[in-house]
What does this fold into?
Amino acid sequence: MSKIPSPDFNELAKKAGIPLDEASWKKTLKDEADKQGSMIANDSKYSPFWRLVECVVIKPTLWIIQTLLIGYVLPNMFVATAVGAWLDLWAWQFDLTRKPAIKARGKVVFRRIAAKGPMIMIPAGTWVQTEIINGTVYRVKVLTDTELAENATEVEAIVEAEHAGAAYNLGGGYYQYLSTAIVGLHNISNPDDWIIEAGADAETDDDLRLRIRNQFTSVAKWHIDAAYRALLTKKAGIDDDNVFFLHDAPRGAGTANAYILLDTGEPSSQMLADLNQYLMDEGRHGHGDDVQVLAMPNQAVDVVCHLFPKHPLTEPQRQTLTEQVTLLIESAFRENTDFNVVKTLPNSRFSFSRLGQEIHDHFDGLDSLEFENRDIVTAMWVPRIQSLKVVLDEAA
It folds into this structure.
């Protein structure tokens, strides 16, 4: 995310010469009283006059300055520092509204146990769930009755997340268990590109700020990145800093590619088709423009991590630590959102030393850890885990 400024409004007010404490205001008022020829000579802290002034003038003035002006009014005068409803008002000025939380929609594949067999009905309302992930079980629901035809080996069903939120945009293979068994089925899973509509949390203030800022540069509406970024980021689940452009005329003059990246999971072909129709077929592109929306390309990597605990662990402790570190690493590679860690990006360096430090920060009791991997330097692609091995070794 682009760096958002955090000005010190208290310091700015001080530099503007505004008194910010009781002593300064008392001096200011005394100086003004002297200029006006005041005859009051008792200026001790016990003076009834100055005690009255402090009570009815200075204290309310300081509240107005410190709490109302510096703490509330000034921050909400700028997009960079406005929050909540005030930021929504800024968005309204640029014809934007905060994106609401929505549920993920996608597809799950159901497979038959035997090579052949009769038709199997997968009823609407069937729940497919994950293992326990960081204390939470994520579930998606089949939306319509789906038939696995006679002798067919598999069928895709459209599913929707149980609750709204980006946490349900899990990577391929996470959704694999039926809440209630269906005779004849096994090996249920969501494919890597299962997401039709990405789930999303209600848009944060920081994400909305970036969309408002982008709107400044998209006024012309034609031929520029900002206009297309503004159109794409209206869709829930696509953030301003997760749209990347290739301008090298990949299909000839006037062509460009817009690569989208989700915080977790990968967009399905249907999601990409919907976005391309939204831009090109519905007339939102510039004159002569040919912009194609694509998923950010991937490159598969094998990751191996060795953990060295400070003390011997019981078998349940070893299993828990291994599972949690695995989830954290998968989170860095955009397979879940259970940990707040630095994620892979295109055109950047993914640092395994920084990932190791984040593992240390999240888990006590580790003496050391080692990755067998070197840093990954990306171009217009992101690394995805092909295999992940977390090995728990005893400290030397």
In short: Residues 106 and 195 are 4 Å apart (CA to CA). The first strand starts at residue 105 and ends at 112. The chain has a mean pLDDT of 87. DSSP finds nine helices and 17 strands in the chain.
